[in-house]
Amino acid sequence: MKNNPITIKDIARILGISPSTVSRALKDHPDISTETKKAVNELAVRLKYQPNAIALSLKQSRSNTIGVIIPEIVHHFFSSVISGIEDVAYNAGFTVMICQSNERYDREVANAKMLLSHRVDGVLVSIAKESTNFDHLKLLKEGGMPLVFFDRIVPGMQADHVVIDDEEAAYKATKHLIENGRKRIAHFSGPEHLMIGRNRKNGYLRALSEAGLAVDPSLIIQADNYEKAVVAVRRLADLNNLPDGIFTTNDLTAVGAMQALQKLGIEIPKQIAIIGFSDGRLSGITNPTLSSVDQHGYEMGSIATEILLNRILSPDEKYTPVTRVLEGQLVVRESSI
Amino acid sequence: MKNNPITIKDIARILGISPSTVSRALKDHPDISTETKKAVNELAVRLKYQPNAIALSLKQSRSNTIGVIIPEIVHHFFSSVISGIEDVAYNAGFTVMICQSNERYDREVANAKMLLSHRVDGVLVSIAKESTNFDHLKLLKEGGMPLVFFDRIVPGMQADHVVIDDEEAAYKATKHLIENGRKRIAHFSGPEHLMIGRNRKNGYLRALSEAGLAVDPSLIIQADNYEKAVVAVRRLADLNNLPDGIFTTNDLTAVGAMQALQKLGIEIPKQIAIIGFSDGRLSGITNPTLSSVDQHGYEMGSIATEILLNRILSPDEKYTPVTRVLEGQLVVRESSI
DNA sequence: GTGAAAGCGCTAACAG
DNA sequence: CTGTTAGCGCTTTCAC
């Protein structure tokens, strides 16, 4: 019993006028007489007419929809980004199609195809950990699709980027540990092939070298989630190689490290100071509370969307990719002092 | 320089055949000769033809898109739900349009209109705290739009529902506190006009009455976020009216209560036991770890989507609303024993 | 001030 | 086996 929605034709028929007149009346075209407008609008309201966005999209080759490809929604950072995207899009009358890659390459490719098929007007992307080939995104780009990358960007891609200054933020975080007297600082790092992973590690290295501290490769461990952090801590403990400070590539990793250490009876921050990255709801809740770098997810989402909408709405402007770099804010709590 | 995407017509022109033949060839219609199929498919791949989903939607009055109206994305529970929705939709070849109401009524109305306009095939809704009027949703329903409510449902609405048994889960949580010897148990409750708020309170009341414990109205306080919990705890402390157990309507409220109490030097769970609701990433991270009720967000999202897709794909089946009640799982951690 | 006609990309009934 | 035609809902010239 799906009653077909009211169309412009229905209104035209009832009023004994032509569809074009109705169309014009609805958008307040100056040519149309006041009475006709009034009649049309009244009937439209009475029949609860809702314009068919699909037909409009087809006609104008503009869907008023933007697509988002995101690794995982269930992350405080990413859901904050989505929230920012959604708010800005909403205010501009755009809808948002969300796809999650679940960190998988094949799914990211499928997502890109789907969005292309749906003729979204632009796409916001943060790439999956697994992705090392980006032909699917280049394809979008070459097809003229505005593309804005956020957080996890593709190095060398001609496109707009919104990131935080990972290197600088990591530098600040590490420096903070050093200033509090830590000398043997470990880094639990992200995947090497992601810019964010590399940049954060570089910031860490810069802080060490600036302070004249030697780099101990055995203290740089690839671990970017809770479980891996637990394993890493155990290994360091077994080898009697525990550091006096740890800078992790994200907060959950920091929590994993912290709890594993506490289980070993190690006091934080007294014996080992810890600082995470990407301040989420977590950081104020752990005991001790976790120092971290605020990644400004909401802001990143809204800025990325503003850039994208700008590209969509004024496509003629000469295309020079912009990169917006947000400052990651060091938030010092109990775990590092 | 938006190069227009390849269409079926382009392929037809190049191959010197008709668009309908191309269309049929692409969908492997039995009538078409093998050679034609081969030629068409090869060219399609070479030109990177992508079917225009918009045109298809218009033609078939089916958009292969479902809409979601959700209060706030930045919540572990809701983002888990979205994740479940997205996964199931993806596997069925559907895309997902996400709208957040930000807990506001007017925005929920606008969202509903937007989804209607975009002719989504069905909608998943969890209503905003602010919403008390539901005409916008009834309008969808009356227009024949399949509607599935999850978690925050509308009482009395003829539609499918997916919820957890809030009453029973709250009962179990409260009973657990009682079994651990607590006698003066407070409840930090959600808004009265939401079913979930009422149900959780009722479960709490049932557990008390079953145990023969008197209900103390001064211990039932409307507080459903971190800040309100802090205020509530201070008030109780000022009045020298602290309970020996607290059951809160969500986890963040529990954390607020816990930290406010700890600041007063009160030991948890020794002096006051606490149990939350809606097990998120938080609960394993607090100190002490927080007992809670797992709300199965991912599962709720996927089940709701399955029901919705079912309605969409077999619309002729006689319509009898279904309600799926998931069991909320009590997860006992340190804060309550 | 209003209407007729064409077309956005695609499919499906009807012809051949 | 393939082509022609019409139409999904809407806008937009071009006529009158």
Structural overview:
Chain A is an alpha/beta fold and 337 residues long. The first copy, chain A, folds into three domains: 8-51, no CATH class; 63-163 and 297-326, 3-Layer(aba) Sandwich (Rossmann fold), CATH 3.40.50.2300; 166-295 and 332-336, Response regulator (Rossmann fold), CATH 3.40.50. The first copy, chain A, has twelve helices and twelve strands. A six-stranded parallel β-sheet of chain A has the order 2-1-3-4-5-11, with helices on both faces. Chain A has a four-stranded parallel β-sheet with strand order 7-6-8-9, sandwiched between helices. In chain A, helix 11 links the parallel strand 8 and strand 9 (273-275). Chain A is elongated. In chain A, 50% of the residues are buried. The mean pLDDT of chain A is 92. The interface between A and B is large, with 58 and 58 residues. The structure holds a DNA duplex (16 and 16 nucleotides).
Low-confidence stretches of chain A: none
Mean residue pLDDT of chain A: 92
Largest interface, C-beta closer than 8 angstroms, per-chain residues: A-B, 58 and 58 residues
Q: Gap between N and C termini of chain A, in Å?
A: 66 Å
**Strand line-up across the major sheet of chain A:** 2-1-3-4-5-11
Outline of chain A: elongated
CATH architecture assignment name of the largest domain in chain A: 3-Layer(aba) Sandwich
Helix- and strand-based class of chain A?
alpha/beta
Strand content of chain A: 5-15%
Can you count the helices of chain A? 12
What is the strand tally of chain A? 12
Order of helices and strands of chain A: HHHHEHEHEHEEHEHEHEHEEHEE
Overall structural domain count of chain A: 3
Main β-sheet description of chain A? 6 strands, parallel
According to CATH, the homologous superfamily of the largest domain in chain A is Response regulator
Please estimate the helix content of chain A.
40-55%
